[in-house]
């Protein structure tokens, strides 16, 4: 069955994918996470995480949060870019405005201390994402998992299979797959896996890398980076049927550039 589904994904066309996904057995329950990246309190997108390639979409991030809520989303993925670059949470007030939307909020960027995670969870954040420190010190991820359970995820950002940290500035010699397996063994229940070469590039996801991670780890995986067409979403829906630990996908630039609508993505997920 798995091989048949993989062959189907590889030969996917828009017409046959839509027909298959509309059949009840292919409904995946996969979560769609619209993305809000924060820099200077504004909603922006960076190309491949580069600070000098920024597009500003909204001065007030509460506006897209309300838009995604009204379109039917239950979750929002938020990244504090200033925090990721500086190592300390910066856009707390902007995060709190997004929390006020009533959506479940997943937040990463600059969370390097237990106190940082605790403060965000106390403020109403549903899940915090630990990246750089989880790579430098995996035991820290385990410590947070013991305290906060499923309210903690680990963000693994990779280029050519190797983990990048400090806001994607530093490329380590740690394999993403190895880090994923390690934090899963320490009790982390969800990994946010981003291919940074695809992020914001509108060139399509790295499906093979995502599949390798899904095969390797026992925990849930949220795929991020490169979703640019509704067909990409359909392929992930089929992948979620093949791999039940594909928890969801993060979509950013494609929604802001209106390549497709959030209701379209939600209707097939």
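Sequence proposed for the structure above (269 residues):
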């Amino acid at each position: 069955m798995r091989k048949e589904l993989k062959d189907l994904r590889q030969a996917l066309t828009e017409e046959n994918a839509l027909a298959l996904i509309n059949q009840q057995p292919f409904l995946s329950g996969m979560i769609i996470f619209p993305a809000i990246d924060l820099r200077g309190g504004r909603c922006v997108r960076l190309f491949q995480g580069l600070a000098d390639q920024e597009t500003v979409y909204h001065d007030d991030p509460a506006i897209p949060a309300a838009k995604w809520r009204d379109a039917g989303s239950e979750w929002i993925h938020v990244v504090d870019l200033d925090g990721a670059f500086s190592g300390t949470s910066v856009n707390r007030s902007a995060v709190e405005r997004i929390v006020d939307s009533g959506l479940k909020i997943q937040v990463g960027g600059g969370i390097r201390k237990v106190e940082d995670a605790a403060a965000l969870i106390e403020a109403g954040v549903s899940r915090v994402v630990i990246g750089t420190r989880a790579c430098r010190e995996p035991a820290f991820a385990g410590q947070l998992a013991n305290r906060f359970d499923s309210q903690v995820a680990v963000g693994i950002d990779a280029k050519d299979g190797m983990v990048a940290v400090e806001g994607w500035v530093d490329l380590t010699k740690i394999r993403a797959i190895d880090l994923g397996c390690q934090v899963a063994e320490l009790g982390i229940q969800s990994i946010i896996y981003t291919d940074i070469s695809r992020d914001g590039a509108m060139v399509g996801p790295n499906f093979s890398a995502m599949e390798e991670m899904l095969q390797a780890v026992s925990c849930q995986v949220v795929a991020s980076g490169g979703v640019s067409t509704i067909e990409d979403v359909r392929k992930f829906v089929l992948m979620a049927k093949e791999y039940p630990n594909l928890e969801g996908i993060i979509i950013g630039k494609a929604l802001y550039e209106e390549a497709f609508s959030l209701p379209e993505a939600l209707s097939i997920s």
